[in-house]
Amino acid sequence: MSSTILRRACRKPYTILSRYQSISTLFQSPSIPKPQNHVSGFEFQSNNASGWFSSVSNKRLTFSCGSSLNNTLSFSTQAAVVPSTADGLTVDGIVANQWTILDESESDWKSHASAIAQSIRLIKKRLQWEKLKVRLEMLSIHMEKPDLWDDPVNAGRISREYGSLVGKMKTVNSLEQELIEHIDMIKLAHEEDDPELESESVKALLRMRQSVKEKELEALLAGEHDLCSCYIEVQAGAGGTESMDWAGMVMQMYKMWAQRHGYGVTVVDEMRGEIAGIKRATLRVDGEYAYGYAKAEVGAHRLVRISPFDSAKRRHTSFAAVAVTPILGDGSHHVQISESDLRIERYRSGGAGGQHANVTDSAVRITHIPTGITAACQNERSQHQNKASAMAVLQSRLDQREMARQAQMNAQYTQSLTDNSWGNQIRSYVLHPYRMVKDLRTNFEVSDPDSVLEGEIDDFILSFLTDSMDKENEA
Amino acid sequence: MNLSSLARASSLSTSLASRTLHRSIARRPISCFYSPPSINPKTPLFLRPPIFTATLSDLQKWQNWAKTLASSVGSSFTDSDNGPDSEILHRELNWLVQDALENPNPLFHMESKFETVMKLRVDLGDLYTLWKQRIETRRPFQYVVGCEHWRDLVLSVEEGVLIPRPETELIVDLVYDVVNKNVDLMGGLWVDLGTGSGAIAIGIGRVLGDGGRVIATDLSPVAVQVASFNVKRYNLQDKISVKQGSWFDPLTEFEGRVAGLVSNPPYIPSGHISGLQAEVGRHEPILALDGGEDGMSDLLHLCNGAALMLKSGGFFAFETNGEDQCRLFVDHMESVHKNSFYDLKIVPDFAGIQRFVTGIRL
């Protein structure tokens, strides 16, 4: 009887989860304890942990209910914490089985499951799973304190971090849950001799294998501001035209990289070199994780080549410095800018102005007097917009400065801060006498500088991010 | 002395007399240097339908040609009359592309295919003509694309209408600060004299409260048409009315009832007109630029009018040529209209030039 119900339910275009839920309700008896009682196994569980704990465990509960159709309805606290299949297989168990991972095109569920389990394990590692659990526990203690909101700024920060960690934990838990559900479904279909359902479930597993790859990458970008858009600022080092030309090439590299990723790219501020290239420029890169990736580019970039600007054809070494600042959303700024601290100037203006001049150039520079930090914009078509744009750059720089100051007070971050300082040489681009681009932090290298200069820098970025994550984990 | 006689005195005697003195051709009627007054203002390029097509490779040919032309200018315009240099012209070229194309992205991406068909808002041949006009006849970029980005607005402009200047944006900020401190002014009647494209009027219209109204006046029928078009485009026709006439002429019924008075009147001394940057001197309406022998005739006229028109507590802000005019203006107010105004201030623009005079009617 059960298989008929199952089949009927399965023909409806529902998700696997909802199928199970619909079935499980049939079997639910008053004797099933309320799910809330079952989540107490979470060591970091707190009373005010909002909805998701119970909703996740709820799914789990209904699932185990459905999956144990042919068995007795048994529940244990343990089962609610670590998801496992009807026959007791867990995600860690799958990893331990070391099933061979075949190409995606091979329709073998064990291969898919193994690949997914590996990915989940990597994601957990990247999220620093154990540390994350401890941190979450600590935050939930803070969240429970009755005087939490006496300091609204601090409370806001705590509840934001709490929400973000809970979100990460939820994502991973539901990945594990989903994997287990798929496997159960496949096994069930196999037992019930339903090839249609079985192949459908294997396909679902394959889709999961593909989507979980993206999550691996996202886990690498788990920093507080990684999701933000950002500014990339490039400045030519000493050495005149040759280094200005180099700065221009670096800028171009980032433009093309950003376009490849489908990011919005705007040159906010650009000061061209007299003969070639740029003295400095600020690029605004709009899109998800722009900051998370681009932050790997902070530092000095070195070029070695025969300079086209040297009539004696000598080999030159030049530098371009790259800075990256996140564009924080409204309400999460670290610095409140006071209008009276600002000096706003029209720059590159000359003559009487006003009705005397027809200008399409309305460049504006803003100086934050207390810090001396400046920001400029001349890309917009009105002065008003240039001013707004320069203000946004200034805000981002002041936020960055404040975050750096706070991080310095927080010993935990001191290491990464010194690594990422503006003056550190991070990468070498050699065009002569041999051709190679080498990252000095990771030793990752590529022998085709042209492709790198055309924006193919993802491998450099990923190797750096993975590398620095490993270092953090070791620390 | 009543208002209309003031207006006539100013517009006929000083400015016209000096204009004929300094120009070989008397520019009358003022409204039509390049085309007869149009019933409908020209549609800005970016608002026209994309009904033309060209292949990407043909467009790139045009773009390369246009770039070469822009580069050939170097700093020659800057050296001769403080005009734009190549870098600025290159930026304008990018903006022209943005306005003329429905989707300009393929032009800026290396991977695009040459045979891609691009949709244009103007015929490719006309693009050649437009850029040639920009470089060879120094036609202002804003007339080429038919619009000026001003504050957060995009305003239609065409020959016969002064292109609003970046400095003038600040008048709206000045008004914003004042009305946010004074509810009475926020809901009052504001007047923009010599509105041109309607820029200040629209800027103010957007910072006033629900009860606030703006009357914008201009002598030029083209300006009135263009300003009305812009007002409608921002859906402010219920708040802003545009009237044709000289300075205070269309406003006699509001004497003593005006909450705020703003203007960017002609203030260039007649003697400077012949040496102006080519984009300005050869293309923009002289009516909006020439302020008489010392550039002060219209400003002083406005000063006298402000005493009559403003209600007690009413605010004015006028743009001037710079420090000298600001001083003269304040001196005039303090001597001729003694005890009529208080809180007289001179406000600099972002380039540090003393640009605006503001004050409050006693």
From TrEMBL, chain A:
InterPro entries: PCRF (IPR005139), Pep_chain_release_fac_I (IPR000352), Pep_chain_release_fac_I_sf (IPR045853), PrfB (IPR004374). Residues 187-297 form the Peptide chain release factor domain. Signal peptide: none annotated. GO terms for molecular function: translation release factor activity, codon specific. GO terms for cellular component: cytoplasm. It holds the Pfam family PCRF. The keyword Protein biosynthesis applies. It comes from the Eukaryota. Keywords: Protein biosynthesis. Transmembrane segments: none annotated. HAMAP family: Rel_fac_2. Belongs to the prokaryotic/mitochondrial release factor family. This is Peptide chain release factor domain-containing protein. The lineage of its organism: Eukaryota, Viridiplantae, Streptophyta, Embryophyta, Tracheophyta.
Automatic annotation (TrEMBL), chain B:
It holds the Pfam family PrmA. This is Uncharacterized protein. It comes from Deinandra increscens subsp. villosa. Keywords: Methyltransferase, S-adenosyl-L-methionine, Transferase. One of its GO terms (biological process) is methylation. It comes from the Eukaryota. The keyword Transferase applies. One of its GO terms (molecular function) is nucleic acid binding. CDD domains: AdoMet_MTases (cd02440).
